[in-house]
Amino acid sequence: MNTVAQDQPPRRGKGIYLLPNLLTTCCLFSGFYAVVAAIDKHFDHAGMAVFAAMIFDTLDGRIARLTRTETFFGKEYDSLADMVSFGLAPAIVAYQWGVVRIAEYGHYWGRFGWLACFFYAAAAAMRLARLNARAAVADKRYFEGLPSPSAAAIVAAFVWFFSEWHEPRLVGLFAAFAVTASAGALMVSRLGYPSFKQFDLDRRIRFVYLLLVPLFLILIFIDPPTMLLSMFGTYALSAPVLWVGRRLRRLTRRRPGVA
User: Fold this and answer.
1) DSSP 159-227
2) What is the pLDDT of residues 98-144, one digit of tens each?
3) Domains (ranges, CATH) in the chain?
4) Local structure of residue 145 (DSSP, 8 states)
């Protein structure tokens, strides 16, 4: 009997885990479909696809942690899928929806539109690169900068909301690209956003909080683009508003009292 062979631990296969990577592939496909739908001028479908990508992106990480199937390959694959679904897809959706229309108001308006879209895509790439570089030392309770899925949700919901208007005119088109550029700027900012990763499902909560969940689901079902834009817009604005509030409090404390 070969006792040496029995004492050696079994070698771990070099394959990949199916379920979490399958969910990441669904996230990637949703981002790809959002681009295709935008090219075909189906902007409502493009918006839905971005939000579907967010659901798959949430599930793949949680499933990997619950089943203890986290791998370096899965981490890198997830980042690449996020870049497509939350970086390129929202930028192309905004470009396809507005650049052709805004260019009708002048050549420089068209340049502003595609520059805003490119800035968003570049900001998403830098946001994801910074996240990966600081993953080991980052505070799990907060995100540094607006998360790319939330930024993508704002852009997709905004275009989805305005796509119901046949003629948004210059004001609506300018607002769309301003929101796109602002979402990109918030992604690369140093502002802190709560991550909700430490939320404990086993913890007791008040009954009123439990009622809010079906209420939000009903409101989203009634008017998806309006409610999603409101929810993610509020989340995106929360950090800048809190930062301004803290700055104002510091300034008032430094000023001497006025009799």
Assistant:
1) HHHHTT-S--HHHHHHHHHHHHHHHHHHHTS--EEE--TT--TTS---HHHHHHHHHHHHHHHHSHHHH
2) 887 898 888 889 899 999 999 999 999 999 999 888 877 777 788 89
3) 16-254 (1.20.120.1760)
4) S
Q: What is the dihedral of CA 192, 197, 198, 201, to 10 degrees?
A: 140
pLDDT in tens, 174-222: 999 999 999 999 999 999 998 876 555 556 666 666 666 677 778 778 8
SS3 state of residue 233: helix
Other Cβ atoms less than 10 A from the Cβ of 86: the count is 32
Helix (H) or strand (E) run with residue 143 in it: strand 142-144
pTM of the model: 0.84
pLDDT of residue 74: 86
The CA distances from residue 119 to 15, 83, 111, in Å, are 37, 14, 12
- The neighbour count for residue 4, using CB atoms within 10 Å, is 7
